[in-house]
Amino acid sequence: MKIIAINSSMRKGRTYELLTNIGKKLDYDFEIINLKDYKINYCLGCEVCIKKDYCVIKDDVEKLKEKLINADGIIISTPVYIENISGALKTFFDRNCKWVHRSELIGKPVLLVSTTAGSGLKEVLNYLESVVISWGMKPCGKIGRKIQEKKDVSSEELQLFIDNIEGKSKKEIIKLSRLIRFQVQKAMSTNLLDLDKHFWEKNGLIIKSYFYEENTKINPISKFISNQFGKFLSKKIRENAQKVKIQGGDKIG
Ligand SMILES: Cc1cc2nc3c(=O)[nH]c(=O)nc-3n(C[C@H](O)[C@H](O)[C@H](O)COP(=O)(O)O)c2cc1C
Question: Which residue ranges traverse the bilayer (predicted)?
Answer without folding.
Answer: none
